Structure formats: C-alpha cells, structure tokens
From TrEMBL:
The lineage of its organism: Bacteria, Pseudomonadati, Pseudomonadota, Alphaproteobacteria, Rhodobacterales. The record marks 4 as: Interaction with substrate rRNA. This is Ribosomal RNA large subunit methyltransferase J. The active site is at residue 160. It comes from the Bacteria. The gene is rlmJ. Belongs to the RlmJ family.
Amino acid sequence: MLSYQHAYHAGNLADLHKHALLAWMLDYLTAKPKPLSYLETHAGRGLYDLAGAEAQKTGEARAGITRALVQGWLDADHPLCRALHQIRARNGATAYPGSPLIAGHFLRPGDTAHLAELHPAEHEALTRVAGFAHIHRQDGFAMAQALCPPVPRRGLLLIDPSYEVKADYDQIPGQIGKLARKWNVGVIVLWFPVLNDARHAPMIAALRRDHPQALLSQVAFAPARPGHGMTGSGMFVLNPPYGLQDEAARIAAIYEAL
C-alpha cells in the first residue's frame, strides 16, 4: 500500500512532537566528537511546502508548527527551531523539513545516513534534497535489519511508518526486538499515532513489556477535523540519551496547556 503522502500532514501537531524530540536527540548525539549513523525506515520526501495545495487543504500545519512559532512554544535556540531556521533560509519561508532533512542539518562529515522510501514519487523527491545520505528504495524494515549494527556503531534509528498497513502494529514489536538484539547500543526510536480506537495499545503494551527501560512519550491534542481518529502522538525510545526524559516532559507540558 503506497497511497500515503505526508505532504497533507507536514508540520502538524504530531510532527511537532516527533521532530522536537528527534532534533533534541540529534543535537545531543552530535555534540560529542564521535561519528554516528542515522537510519530511517520510512523517510518520505524530506522537504515540504506548507503553502502547497496539500498542506493548505488540511490546514494541519496552521495548528502545529505555524502556531507554535507564532506563540513561541519553543525557545529560539531549541534544536528544532535552529534546524528550521537554516532550512528555511535555503528553501524559503514556507518550507518544512521532514525528519531526513532535520537529521541532515545535524549530521557532520564522517557521519553516515541511510534512508528508505518505497513510494516512487516520494523516493524521487527525496533523492533531490537528501544528497548527504544513502537512499534505498526498499522496505524500511528490511533495510534496517540488513544494516544493523551499522558502521559507525554509535547512532540512531527512526521507525516512522504510515500505519496504513494494519499489520505494522503487529510486526513492530518483533522488528524492534530483533534490531535491539543486533544493535544493543543504538538509540532506536518509534513514532506512533495515538488513536481514539486504541489500535496502538497492544503494540505499546508489548514494547513496554519487552523493553522496560525504554522511554515512552505521549501527548494528546484535539482531532485535526471532525471524525479524525488521531488524538495524540507517541514516541518510544530504546537507549534514550541522557536528559531526554526532561525534554519530553517539557514538550508534554506545552500540549497539556493547549
């Protein structure tokens, strides 16, 4: 199933949660003078235009990153704000980076990136903006399993599927278990939607049982429109960097105040 296109949802409240924590982790990891690997299983196109027809159709970015910037939810020196400022300086005031370009902002010479994207149009767009990375047109889980443990061994893996394939919920705990055994020092990050039908709940219960030391960050927000099933965003992080729990609490407090 390759119908999902993130351009309709770029910069929404779920992206803000995910990208604020991702940028913080990458900023922390790249502060040390040691090379790292960045892997992403479902990369998308990498760069979005919030003035484009897709984003304007849903208006989700106006309730997310646009509102956050206007109201100052994040400090100007927050890693996500710093990355967004530089990416917009190069690509225009309505540009919004997906996680590949957020990673690209922080990665240094000597770091390695591997991005997987199956959707043909999204893959083609990704190749135009992510020249810093090895780009794979293959199943993201297959790429991650083949490359882990990566070289350099220090690093972060982001798993961010569309969840259009309902089997994702069933297979993710097993996939993460295998990856954690292969790459026991890797920061393995899963994003998931919080749904009002609790479809995600068995997956998270299994992950918490198997990885009790992992960090779980969840935020809640109103549905983007009547009948929309997503009412929050979640991040599950194995081997969370030092200080991430405090940063997750700061981000959660923003959502609690909405």
